[in-house]
Amino acid sequence: MSEPEQTRVLLVEDSPGDARLVEIMISEGGDPEAYRIDHAEDLAHGLARLAKAEYHVVLLDLSLPDSHGLETVETVLDAAPTVPIVVLTGNADDALALSAVQRGAQDYLVKGEGDGRAIRRAISYAIERVRAEEALRNSETRFRALFQEAALGIMLGDPDGRAVQVNPALADMLGYQPEVMQGRTIAEFAHPDERERISERLDALRARGEGSEQLDARLVRRDGALAWGRMSVSAVEDSHGQPLFLIALVEDVTERREMEDRLR
User: Fold this and answer.
1) What's the pLDDT tens digit per position in 210-237?
2) In whole angstroms, how far apart are CA 208 and each of 135, 203, 214?
3) Nearest CA to 226 among 169, 168, 175?
4) Alpha helices in the chain (DSSP H)
5) Helix crossing, 43-52 with 70-79: angle to 10°?
6) What does pTM read for this prediction?
């Protein structure tokens, strides 16, 4: 069984007494080995430590000998943008706290208004939020790569089915630029004889608010040629059951249908 990871904390605090008190509060009531706390007495030494070692979180005073106020948060973020910051200051100012969070701090604690549990909780939440944000960014990056490189045509639509994003495969299939297709439904690219059928199936999907619809339909390319598309359209809802968007996957089965026609 592997040992639990030790949380590395950089405490940037110019008051030795306050720094020692914070260290004691973090260590009390728990595993004394769970945290490693390095202390920097000013911003310059804090930045030097950030450049040399990896930290899970920075506890940052906003009144330092070489920096003051929100610029301190911005400077640390510029130096270590992936390390969460918890402001730990003596200034009980709600407006300043809001501004600090808006500038990128994960939390704002006032000295003397909390105990060790509050500080440990703020550290834990800050680290969890940053990790969740990183996981979300990685997921979005993977999705964008899949969306752009997929051989299958993909259309992301609003709840009414109007295209918000179209990937290159679907645009190439129909001979359009992706931006030209935005704001239009997949039914608008279908043969006139197919449009009512497609619209009815999409209306049924939106009425249910869940599941998917599969159908083959003739699509009209920009040059007027016909293409057979095998479509699977799904509805995605939020946690309250409200439709967020529709996603249509379109496979070009023109050659397959032509071969089937010849065989028949």
Assistant:
1) 788 999 999 999 999 999 999 999 988 7
2) 32, 9, 15
3) 175
4) 16-27, 43-52, 70-79, 94-103, 116-149, 168-174, 178-181, 192-208, 254-263
5) 20
6) 0.60
CB distance 227 to 219 below 8 Å: yes
Q: How far apart, in whole angstroms, are the C-alpha atoms of residue 196 and residue 194? A: 6
Q: Which long-range contacts (CB under 8 A, 24 or more apart) does 211-219 make?
A: 211/235, 216/253, 216/257, 217/190, 217/191, 218/190, 218/191, 218/193, 218/194, 219/173, 219/174, 219/189, 219/190, 219/191, 219/194, 219/250
Contact 146, 153 (CB under 8 A): no
Find the largest Cα–Cα distance for the chain: 89
- Written as six digits, the tokens of 149 are 């490189």
Gap between the Cα atoms of 18 and 93, Å rounded: 19
**Predicted confidence band of residue 29 (pLDDT cuts 50, 70, 90):** low
What is the rounded distance in angstroms from the CA atom of residue 209 to the CA atom of residue 155?
Answer: 18
The dihedral over CA atoms of 58, 64, 68, 74, expressed in degrees to the nearest 10, equals: -20
Q: What is the mean pLDDT of residues 109-133?
A: 87
Query: Letter for the amino acid at 124?
Result: S
The dihedrals phi and psi of 100, each to the nearest 5 degrees, come to -65, -40
What are the backbone angles phi and psi of residue 21, rounded to the nearest 5°?
Answer: -65, -40
Helices 94-103 and 70-79, axial angle in degrees (round to 10): 20
Buried b (16+ CB within 10 A) or exposed e, 107-130: bbbebeeeebeebbebbeebbeeb
* Residue 1 pLDDT greater than 50, yes or no: no
Distance CA 212, CA 232 (A): 7
